[in-house]
User: Which sequence fits this backbone?
């Protein structure tokens, strides 16, 4: 991770770099983190952290929670699930940035969340949150933004097309390196039976 | 050398637009903030990003029509006591009631309920319309992924260049319109994928879906 210091000397450059880094890390989903989400007793909701790009997994005492669709959530909203064992059947849905649980916990519980996050805002004394080849791709996206604003839309589009190819390649490599679990994080994919 | 800190996202977008495309002699900062608000509202509505849940207590003996939430943009789902309602036509809303349903017009939602006098709970899942920006220090709604903020720049450029006229400008404007529309599509796709994701058991790798919708009541009864 290269230091930003020296590369960034103006406000404009820093803002471009931050915008590009947020987009790149969101599209790569390479910054993963673990966090604890506390849900108060008799409450069915909790707020997701603002930097969540995608919730990769949610656990209660090492047991994975299962995702409900919005239709399933609306079916169950008027049912607190009393009488259902919370350790046997805990499900969640996400509406906006709110996490909904079913059944409603009768005691305060701590959930463990694994999620992909976007990069935090950097200042000119920070280091990039991406490294190696991803850093070059970040510079490419920053250059594309600058070309776009400089009245060079054709060149900017060419750079953006190259950026998209680079992201796909890095994403593919990242998937391969992370093995089986990674395939679960790709939306819409199903492992063949 | 002093440390430079990032400025709010709207100020960054303003600087990008001022660089070459939006002349301050034609559009002052108030105009530009208004153009960015228009872009933001259109992006949120078209990509259906701002999901929101609302509860309406339906009391058939008192009223069958209720005000939609003030920020309502588009209804996604309506459930009554856990049962999905279909949308009825406005004609059906004033004719004989044949099935539980809902209807909408202007800023009103109404319910046609068969043989019901008891109070019922309706749940409305809808897409909200964001408020217009008031200052350059405003943040985007946390439900709007900030990595898509660049699309707002293209929307403003599209409008400004169309207004200025000239073949070259209009050609560039259409390019910006295409980028905006592509980004709307990408944002919408991301929202749909997030809604449909999560049917895998994260750690063990086995497929572990929640049972089909109709089976949920069986689970509850178990």
Assistant:
């Amino acid at each position: 991770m290269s230091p930003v210091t020296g590369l960034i000397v103006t406000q404009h450059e820093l803002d471009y770099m931050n915008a590009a880094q947020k987009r790149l890390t969101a599209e790569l989903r390479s910054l993963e983190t673990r966090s604890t989400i506390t849900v108060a007793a008799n409450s069915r909701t909790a707020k997701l952290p603002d930097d969540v790009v995608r919730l990769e997994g949610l656990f209660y005492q090492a047991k994975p929670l299962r995702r409900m669709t919005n239709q399933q959530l609306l079916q169950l909203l008027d049912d607190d699930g009393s009488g259902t064992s919370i350790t046997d059947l805990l499900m969640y849905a996400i509406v906006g940035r709110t996490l909904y649980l079913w059944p409603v916990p009768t005691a305060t519980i701590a959930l463990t969340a694994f999620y992909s996050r976007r990069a935090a805002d950097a200042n000119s004394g920070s280091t990039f949150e991406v490294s190696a080849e991803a850093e070059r791709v970040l510079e490419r996206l920053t250059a594309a933004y600058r070309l776009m604003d400089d009245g060079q839309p054709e060149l900017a589009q060419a750079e953006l097309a190259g950026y998209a190819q680079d992201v796909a390649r890095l994403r593919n490599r990242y998937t391969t390196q992370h093995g089986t679990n990674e395939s679960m994080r790709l939306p819409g994919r199903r492992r063949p039976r | 050398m002093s440390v430079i800190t990032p400025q709010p996202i709207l100020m960054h977008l303003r600087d990008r637009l001022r660089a070459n495309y939006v002349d301050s002699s034609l559009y002052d900062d108030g105009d530009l903030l208004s153009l960015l608000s228009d872009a933001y509202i259109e992006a949120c509505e078209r990509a259906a990003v701002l999901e929101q849940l609302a509860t309406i207590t339906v009391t058939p003996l008192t009223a069958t029509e209720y005000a939609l939430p003030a920020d309502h943009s588009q209804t996604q789902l309506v459930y009554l006591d856990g049962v999905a309602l279909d949308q009825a036509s406005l004609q059906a809303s004033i004719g004989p009631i044949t099935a539980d349903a809902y209807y909408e017009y202007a800023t009103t939602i109404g319910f046609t309920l068969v043989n019901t006098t008891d109070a019922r709970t309706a749940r409305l899942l809808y897409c909200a319309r964001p408020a217009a920006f008031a200052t350059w220090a405003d943040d985007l709604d946390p439900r709007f992924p900030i990595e898509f903020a660049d699309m707002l720049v293209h929307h403003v450029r599209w409008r400004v260049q169309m207004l200025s006229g000239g073949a070259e400008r209009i050609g560039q404007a259409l390019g910006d319109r295409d980028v905006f529309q592509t980004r709307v599509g990408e944002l919408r796709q991301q929202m749909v994928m997030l809604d449909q994701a999560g049917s895998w058991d994260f750690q063990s790798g086995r497929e572990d879906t929640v049972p089909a919708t109709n089976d949920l009541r069986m689970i509850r009864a178990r």
About this structure: The first strand of chain A starts at residue 32 and ends at 39. Confidence is low (pLDDT under 50) at residues 180-193 of chain A. Chain A is about 40% helix and 20% strand. The beta strands of chain A are 32-39, 45-47, 52-60, 63-64, 66-67, 91-95, 98-102, 109-117.
